[in-house]
Amino acid sequence: MFHKTLCAWLSFSLCTLSFAQKTFTIEGTVKNAQTQSPIAGVSIIGEGIFAVSADDGSFTLKNVGEGVYTLQATHLGYTPKYFDLEVNGQPENLLVTLSESNTLLQEVQLLGKTKEKLAKEQPLVTVEASKAFMEANRENSLMQTLSKIPGVSTINIGSGQSKPVIRGLGFNRVAVVQNGIKHEAQQWGSDHGLEIDQYGMGAIQIIKGSASFMYGSDAIAGVVNIKPAAAPEEHSFSGEVNLLGESNNNLLGISTGIQARKEKWFYRARLTFRDYGDYKVPTNRINYENYIFELHENHLRNTAGMEANASFSVGYISDHIKSETFFSNVYNKNGFFANAHGLEVRTSSIDYDRSDRDIDLPYHQVNHFKITNNTVITGNKHTLYFETGFQNNQREEHSEPVPHGYMPKPAHSKEREFHKNTFSLNIRDAFQMQKGHSMHAGVNLEFQQNTIDGWGFLIPAFNRFTAGVFAYNQLEINPNLHLQAGLRYDFGFLDTKAHVDWYPSTRTNEDGSTSYIYLQRAQNKQLDFGNMSASVGLSYLQNHTTYKINIGKSFRMPLANELASDGVNYHMYRYERGNIDLDPETSYQLDIDIDHTAELFSVGISPFVNVFDNFIYLNPTPNYFETLQIYEYTQNKVFRMGAEVRASTTLFDNLQVDASMEYVYSRQTSGAKKGFTLPFAPPLSTLLSASYQFKKLLFFKKPQFIVDYRITAAQDEIVPPEEKTAGYQVLNMALMSHFNLFKYDAQCRLKLNNAFDTKYFNHTSFYRLIDVPEAGRNISLSLTIPF
């Protein structure tokens, strides 16, 4: 049924292309003449021709006939440039370079600032992944795509899911923001990925380090800020079809998006569907708890899955108002490795090797529905931002019903269900006090309601409310020196609900008699939390070098699982117990960034120092509950430091070489694990990349060959019962190019991951805990057809 649906969908998409008007499409890029960095928002104007460059500097001129055109490229802060364009049936990619300028008009100096310069003036350590970066590095999940950025890594859960990790910290310590609203699901779990479609989005901003003063509690380690794509041009209609196939897990995927705009109203829509089988690993057996599991043809059985996403938005733009409302629904169903839930699979009657595409027990299915609105109202000196959102996350975890301890065999497979509703409201006023001096003030409100179901208990149902009031000041001391200072206060409460087992447990009384009682796992309890966050930073621009320093204090409210969990986590094969007396985490961090960018090369370093007064930690104890080891949440003092180093240069005009290295050092300075690092601590890692741009190859236009070589050191710094992880080297290669298809400029990408089928273990992978290596060799082919 899937293949028929996919074929019908593909036929519809291609027919849409063939019936469209066949005209020439010219693509180009606008760059800074001095730094060679892309420039966004440049207007390309000619007779009957108009385009605006995107975040990555790219622009597209559509419906261009043969002839010679005189075009003008203009942008505030740059000298306008005129150039001639000759179209003779063989359009090529244009390169337009603009030089920065200052304009003096009636004693008022206009200093045009590009997005790149504004980022340099902000003291926070940020990296922006453009749409072009996403297309060139796209992997099976959003965070795997972003993991090429130094300091960003993932906790992988199979081949289709992953969680963000910034400088060794993840889970609810990294805020994921989409369209201005924090993404809220069950991100506390190590096996819970992000429910976000990575197609159709704009640029992604990564903030490394504390950003709590801007985003609240969960931004104690950093932020992944997913921005919407730029609004369509006036009186335009466009779209694209993305096709993807992979060899390792036999993945087939398609994503189709369209957008259109009249004068003030516009809309966007996208559909994405992916279906994949069990992925292959470079081994034919897994050793788990001293039991050997044989793998059929190297398939990690029961890791197949599917994903179906739909999104739609409608927007309005006028002189003083811009508003867009987004609707999205993300659904995925994924199997867990059959042996990940313990050793019961030895007696299971399920034939896991019957097919590499079926999804047997255990599996989970998640549906995330989201409505958000972003409205910006501009005045003379004030710019008001309103962001509202509603999210509904429903997650079911199904396991083969087996009796455990006093629990009899359940009647169905639904082990756990979480149903979470989240309501969000953000209001911010950006007030221009005077030239070079602005004040931003606002409030963030969020309410969560999480209910539970199923025969297995881990965390209780709860309600959670948070409110934050903040203000930060941006001051231009002089054109090269900028100050940012912010202060925030957050208040919140967590209201947990009582829970009692559905089955009786046996207890021996003092007189020797036996009682049958229904154990109470959680109580009705309301906890209040409040704390301050603050940040102050400076940025200094000197010729081609940017210096940044930022000092911040942040905090994070404890979660329901940390405070009130009391049950078996079969994904981890352990018993987890919360601590109702936990305090909020408080963190102090120093961030420094030095970046030197010249015409042909750039170098940079981003060191940091981080101190936690009371880091919340799941600590293994010597106690057991019904043969399962008990882990308890506790708090320790933690010291962390590290850095990212990066360098890039251009050789022979066509060859670009990049290198980056990242390192994190962590040490617990109090508690039962004093002297140890933190769990899931990423090891020292280096990424070497080379990219060569050809002029032409057969019918391909400017093909680009990319080689990535990642060298990862062994991780000997572990927290018992973690195990050490050996170092490894992995080679990836890719070939990207444009070519004409249906008179449209299509883009194809052929990629080879793990070229030598290397067997290695990623220390931050979920399956690494049960001796499962990373995926083996994979060949992927993607095709993007714009129309």
Overall description:
There is one protein chain. With 787 residues, this protein is mainly β. The chain folds into two domains: 107 residues, Immunoglobulin-like; 670 residues, Maltoporin, Chain A (Beta Barrel), CATH 2.40.170. It has six helices and 48 strands. The protein has a 22-stranded antiparallel barrel. The longest helix has 18 residues. The N terminus is likely disordered.
Shape: globular
Q: In CATH's first tier, which class of the largest domain applies?
A: Mainly Beta
Identify the CATH homologous superfamily of the largest domain. Answer: TonB-dependent receptor, beta-barrel domain
Radius of gyration: 27 Å
Distance between the termini: 28 Å
Number of strands: 48
- What is the overall number of helices? 6
The overall pLDDT average reads 88
Amount of beta strand: over 45%
Query: What's the story with the biggest beta sheet?
Result: 22 strands, antiparallel, barrel
Taking pLDDT < 50 over at least 5 consecutive residues as the criterion, the unreliable ranges are: 1-22, 103-112
Helix-and-strand structural type: mainly beta
What distinguishing features does this structure have?
787 residues; mainly beta; Immunoglobulin-like; Maltoporin, Chain A; 6 helices; 48 strands
Short description:
With 787 residues, this protein is mainly beta. It contains six helices and 48 strands.
